[in-house]
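Record minuted for everyone:
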Amino acid sequence: MATIKIGIVGTGRGKTFMKIPEFMDAVFYAVCDRRQEKLDKIKEQYPDVLTFTDYEEMLKSDIDAVILANYFDEHAPFAIKALKAGKHVLSECICNATIAEGVELCRTVEETGKIYMIAENYPYTRQRWEMQRLYQAGELGEVMFAEGEYVHTMKDTSSYSISPGIYHWRNCIPPTYYGTHALAPLMFMTNTMPKRVTGFTCKIDPAYRKDQIKKSDNGGIVVCEMDNGAIFRTLQGGIRPDTRNYRLLCTHGACEIERRTGDLFVWHDDHDRNGQVKQRAYLPDWPEHGDLASKATHGGGDFWVMYYFTKAIHDNVQPYLDVYRGVAMSTVGIQAWRSIVNGNIPFEIPDFKNEDERKKYENDTWNPIRKENIDPATQPPITVTGWEPSAEALAAAKAVWEKTDYKGLGWV
């Protein structure tokens, strides 16, 4: 097909996708943001790009695809509009903020036949690629237990400028919601799907959080029962220190990323080596395009996201990280928080390919995420520890916000 014309929503995270390798046969063609001053800066760098402050107007243009880099919890409505307008969609995490949104999104992809992909970049570092290769080659056997950790911290006061406003999404989502970075690599490696989840949250000393302005709890732990019977344990949130580690324990071997070196460590029991060495540690190569991937952000993952999205459009075949996997892993975060606020009881993850299963959730709008125009008393709780930011932290944050372009609502 002809060169893919791509429109991007959001001038913050969206900048990552503006430089597209020529061989992908795609071009950054349009950008949309509510803030004209941000669009003016993009126009200086990309003078031929179309700019829009109105999303509906961008969808009327001759773009072929939309990349959604707007607010974390607002992707589904934007994606559905784009799909119905005949555009392919690459959506940043998460796909859906409610299960009802996920059901509608799956139905819309089916009805329109357009390509949909979640822009989940964490499966695609060279180590996680190699874990997937080893598992799919059969060296490790069947997965029984796996762990994924995505804990990304920064100095509390440094977070003020990237989360302007007490109702900014970073300050108002439960700790289990930002969990696709922890779970997606494990699903990618093992080709399994979550079926049931149980959630837990970390109880943290208030003194530790003295400079934090987010209202939600810090750490979320999710136990997933997968469709092959394995148990996956994921950790996400703002507890410290940083960790982005992954491990597979299988019937004939195991592998994990070494925390100190970043090497991949693979080992087998003496009695079950099947011709393999007992243990080895190494830094694997990229499967291909290593020169480009090694220069990309998020450990190369941002290159591979664009590679597979544009390839899916050219081939007219849904990508591996399709709407069903994207909605399932996004729903894990929702159901895990639901588990936590209900005393850590398990909740199911429906098969989103199955209309009978997903129909039960078509009106499930359960949503604890805080918004400026919603009375918190009408929503599920966003914390089980009862945390409220201090007046001192809020005053310090507001002093930073006054120097930004924060105007109450807007896109990052």
In short: The CA atoms of residues 67 and 90 lie 5 Å apart.
